[in-house]
Amino acid sequence: MLKPIKTALLGATLFTAAFAGAAHAETKLNALFMAQAAYSEADVRAMTEAFTKANPDVTVNLEFVPYEGLHDKTVLAQGSGGGYDVVLFDVIWPAEYAANNVLVDVSDRITPDMKDGVLPGAWTTVEYEGKRYGLPWILDTKYLFYNKEILEKAGITNPPKTWDELAEQAKTIKEKGILDTPISWSWSQAEAVICDYTTLVSAYKGEFLKDGKPAFQTDGGLDALNYMVDSYKSGLTNPNSKEFLEEDVRRVFQNGEAAFALNWTYMYNMANDPKDSKVAGKVGVVPAPGVEGKSEVSAVNGSMGLGITTTSKHPDEAWKYIEFMTSQATQNAYAKLSLPIWTSSYEDPAVAEGQEDMIAAAKVALAAMYPRPTTPKYQELSTALQLAIQEALLGQATPEDALNTAAENSGL
């Protein structure tokens, strides 16, 4: 009788061990993020650690690349049969990603609480042709930052309300010998310059596309580039702006070498940090200006979303991770770096504390966000425009000729 009992016990032990192994089997997710602006690498790691603590059966392997590599890394991984479960994507990519089956349509995963709680404008970050391809995560636009002390020294009482007024104030600062080049922009031949250009296109009420064809080479699109070229040639703009990305602009502003700078939300608290900034306590922020008779303010939609790739073998766990990263609790905890996507967060005193000016500017600017062109051929169009802007700034072509060439090379 002993033998069968021993066999039974051994079988039970093996079953228990196998069950325990299955219960503790970990799902491993690979996630691709951006190594700059908004949330830092350390912040994303801290958020992820909180997620894995609450979900011990899931581990998340994080990879960070500069913004410039984010799109290509996502597409290349997709072509090689996978690699990432969760990817960060820019507002300009859903059209292309949808057309090429890169991201999962998650429309049926969006809960009523999400639909009602997230700012209406934030949803445009992840939408294409009525479908949603993720959840908005970094809600952002570019604001006009100004150095209060420099304006005060120049006898300027209020920051500019129009782009022409900004040029006038910069001229006053230059003529009084306070700063030689008062304005800094992100005009490197990269996506950064398209964001600055779009801000101005929105101010001049321009259009990128009309009936699917380029329309930026006339009217507001041409006015916007003319303004950029005039500002550059006038000597009011830092000449290095043509090579600057956003981080360069932040460093220049934090060193007290710019009276005005166009940049994303993240610069506000970094420039106000006395450990790293020479202008802490002197940072002013308002929505980017408008154009008299055309607009009150201007703003570009620079938001980003988190989505599940179509090659992910763990879409449910990937979605759970995205829900956690975009949740109101997580976003409110990191609101000093990137403003939340949730409407009610803006009435939370803890979110506003210490950044009341930023919140006031955001309430206006986020409602005015203007999209970059929505097209599956966005990358081609953006590349053509980047080159056109650079040529116009360097005087290699007139703004009109440069934009006409960009329209011809846009692939549209």
TrEMBL record:
One of its GO terms (cellular component) is periplasmic space. It comes from the Bacteria. Residues 1-25 form the signal peptide. Keywords: Periplasm, Signal. Belongs to the bacterial solute-binding protein 1 family. PANTHER family: ARABINOSE-BINDING PROTEIN-RELATED, DIACETYLCHITOBIOSE BINDING PROTEIN DASA. This is Carbohydrate ABC transporter substrate-binding protein (CUT1 family). The lineage of its organism: Bacteria, Pseudomonadati, Pseudomonadota, Alphaproteobacteria, Hyphomicrobiales.
